[in-house]
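ok new one. same drill as before - structure tokens go in, u give me an amino acid for every spot. 170 of them this time. try not to just spam alanines like last time pls lmao
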């Protein structure tokens, strides 16, 4: 019965799909405006979420969760970076009602000199599980060149993390 599926009283669309569509609209309409103190994925304009960047944000970073509450993850490949798994995404396109192309974002932190340092989210010695304590260390993101296409109706939850500037060009 998870995610509103197989229930007689569920007549609407997929809520994760609707949120991702809203995030795409907010990203596309990114303009400087007065920020609102809230962490809702529906907050407008882009920049309304707590943002670690000083420049106008171009991305609403989010994570997706499966029916069992585990974070959805995808792989990326970046030269010189040994970690290759992320749970953070940027929506690039929504199509065919509830499918999306998501850019995989590299999780990391910024040191005192302003250098980005990637964080390996995989549990030590494990090749598949996300180390949730490492997730709490992530404070910054970089765009990878890798994207994944997903069926948004397969996810039960979405959590918006931050509004950041990744220097994404349209």
């Amino acid at each position: 019965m998870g995610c509103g599926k197989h229930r007689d009283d569920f007549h609407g669309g997929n809520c994760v799909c609707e949120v991702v569509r809203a995030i795409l609209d907010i990203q596309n309409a990114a303009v400087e405006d007065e920020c609102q103190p809230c962490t809702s994925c529906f907050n407008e304009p882009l920049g309304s979420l707590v943002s670690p960047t000083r420049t106008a944000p171009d991305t609403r970073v989010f994570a997706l969760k499966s029916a069992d509450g585990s974070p959805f993850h995808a792989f990326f490949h970046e030269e010189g970076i040994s970690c290759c798994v992320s749970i953070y995404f940027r929506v690039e396109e929504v199509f065919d009602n509830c499918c999306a192309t998501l850019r995989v974002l590299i999780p990391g932190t910024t040191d005192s000199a302003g250098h980005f340092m990637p964080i390996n989210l995989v549990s030590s010695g494990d090749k598949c599980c996300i180390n949730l304590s490492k997730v709490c260390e992530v404070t910054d993101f970089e765009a990878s060149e890798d994207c994944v296409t997903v069926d948004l109706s397969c996810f039960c939850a979405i959590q918006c993390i931050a509004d950041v500037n990744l220097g994404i060009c349209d």
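Residues 6-11, 31-36 have pLDDT under 50 and may be disordered. and btw The first strand starts at residue 59 and ends at 65.
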